[in-house]
Automatic annotation (TrEMBL), chains A, B:
Protein's name in the database: Ribonuclease Z
Primary gene name: rnz
UniProt: Zn(2+) 2 binding residues: D66, H67, D211, H270
Protein family: Belongs to the RNase Z family.
Keywords assigned: Endonuclease, Hydrolase, Metal-binding, Nuclease, tRNA processing, Zinc
Active site feature: D66 (proton acceptor)
EC code: 3.1.26.11
Annotated catalysed reactions: Endonucleolytic cleavage of RNA, removing extra 3' nucleotides from tRNA precursor, generating 3' termini of tRNAs. A 3'-hydroxy group is left at the tRNA terminus and a 5'-phosphoryl group is left at the trailer molecule
Free-text remark on how the cofactor is bound: Binds 2 Zn(2+) ions.
Free-text function comment from the UniProt entry: Zinc phosphodiesterase, which displays some tRNA 3'-processing endonuclease activity. Probably involved in tRNA maturation, by removing a 3'-trailer from precursor tRNA.
Organism: Marinobacter similis
Length: 325, 325
């Protein structure tokens, strides 16, 4: 499972960070999913390795503009490129309304079916061949969701000794069983794939949270998850100065929760534009990392635009951009 | 009068060119106007010398997304920066509808008054202290306008000999007359500014056209204009291959018109993304210039993102970016 940050700034873009978007590839680069789509996401994609032609679904955490205003441009550009594959847009009903009105009032039509799916419907569940997705309600100024991605259809290992014990020699039936298909032999015996194969590892699961001032809402979802991607808009002192209204999290809050939930990997993102990079920047982005590290003993990263991460099959997290390790 | 291209690509952004937007300063940098606002315009402004806090008015040529999808982000970012000055949005009614619905469905409100002004109202006319603006209907797939900017309140020269002949010696009344104000003397005589001052040069006038397949519609407006900024989406051969549907102009078409209208300065923009820059790019952006130069004998420029131009008081046009001269 790989993912690339296309935007890591809260509210407004900066010269170094765009507003929120994340490209997630459950198995290599195609197909891929987009989580949130701030203005300029299609521009960021011009510099990343994901084509809008292979985009399978878009998940929108909440209706705020820094998570949605890139949708009209991305959707119409895909159309200008001649996309014909259907695209799922999993979003609140208001985002569907925004898109419909925008297309109507800009003389735009799409060359492909856009399937609106209500992200706030009770019991939300989405899946394709590669992943299944559920969500969790968060606490923000508007309804907001975290999306939980769990990989599907893991590779199976044949129990070869067991097969031979039952007199089933290598052949096409082995291949079918390994693909997860049940097989009926010429003599009428039914072989169930689950009986003759095993899945030698656990399914990778990661949580991509939207804006949220209460990470503990993710406690249940964190059980069995290997990674949390969560906003840390402020350091704790700034958060207290700003007051509760924006309903964002501090680095400390998220780190404490991740530690308590025993999440092995944590990536912070969605930083207030006040935090600068480089040796002379004040307040400095490193303060967010320093604060989080005081409370969290797992593997911590601060996201940067275009950084790509891989959640390996052994459940370790690798940042493929060396500078950020 | 200065202007900076913030986007020069047609339809979709490329890595070198954003979609359409132009910053126009009638007198130095503040206040300034924006003509069109493709997605990512607020990002481009982070690299230009114009602050959204000094933006006076936005003019939208037509409703297409590559000219409008940057509006919601730009408007809400100005709000997050705490803007309180009113802002005029001169645009088709459909763009007003797009903005209203988008703000409603993204939990956005603006910290300043946004004045919607219908750009397609008969007899459209807008002015502030620095410029007056009219428009011209063009020919495109949707209603589209060119905006004609004429500077106002030119500096006056006192007719000092005439004043002295009438016994009016230097003093505060001279200053008032020079500002264009009429003055009543203590003895009751009324001095009209127009009688005692002269304006030693003509007002600069430039046309910023939207998408258009018939430049001759600008014939009347070109009389007395010193510069035309017009789209040249294709070379003539590509235009013929594409067919009439997109309703864009070729470089040849615009150049022929500008020559016939005796326009002294022409800047082409809004290039199809098929045209590449650099020695190995095919088809090459230089083909558009070569084609235009065959038909036009005035001063020609091809716009690039972030190039700034100045229309001088002597009516000559200077490109302040040296590489493009």
């Amino acid at each position: 499972m790989e993912f690339t940050f296309l935007g890591t700034s809260a509210g407004t873009p900066t010269r170094a960070r765009n507003v929120t978007a994340l490209a997630l590839s459950p198995s290599g680069h195609k197909p891929w999913y987009l989580v949130d789509c701030g203005e300029g996401t299609q521009h960021q994609l011009l510099r990343a390795h994901h084509s809008v032609m292979q985009l399978r679904a878009i998940f929108i955490t909440h209706i705020h503009g820094d998570h949605t205003f890139g949708l009209p441009g991305l959707l119409t550009s895909a159309s200008m490129l001649g996309r014909t594959e259907p695209l799922d847009l999993i979003a609140p009903v208001q985002t569907h309304r925004f898109i419909t009105t925008t297309l109507e009032n800009s003389d735009s039509s799409l060359s492909y079916p856009l399937n609106f799916i209500d992200s706030e419907a009770p019991g939300f569940h989405w899946q394709d061949d590669h992943a299944e997705v559920t969500n969790v309600a968060l606490s923000h100024r508007v309804p907001c969701r975290a999306f939980v991605f769990t990989e599907r259809n893991l590779e199976r290992q044949l129990l070869q000794d067991k097969l031979r014990d039952y007199g089933i020699e290598p052949g096409p039936s082995w291949g079918e069983l390994q693909k997860g298909h049940d097989v009926t032999l010429p003599d009428g015996r039914l072989l169930r794939s689950d009986d003759y194969t095993q899945i030698p590892r656990v399914a990778r699961r990661l949580i991509v949270a939207g804006d949220n001032d209460d990470p503990t809402l993710l406690a249940d979802a964190s059980v069995g998850s290997h990674l949390l991607i969560h906003e840390a808009t402020y350091t704790q002192d700034v958060s207290e100065r700003v007051g509760p209204w924006p309903q964002h999290s501090s680095a400390e809050q998220v780190a404490k929760f991740a530690q308590q939930a025993q999440l092995p990997n944590l990536v912070l993102t969605h930083f207030s534009s006040r935090y600068q990079s480089g040796p002379h920047g004040t307040p400095n982005i490193n303060q967010l990392a320093a604060e989080a590290l005081q409370h969290y003993q797992g593997k911590l990263f601060l996201a940067r635009d275009f950084d790509t991460y891989r959640l390996e099959k052994d459940l370790s997290l690798t940042c493929l951009s060396a500078e950020n390790s």
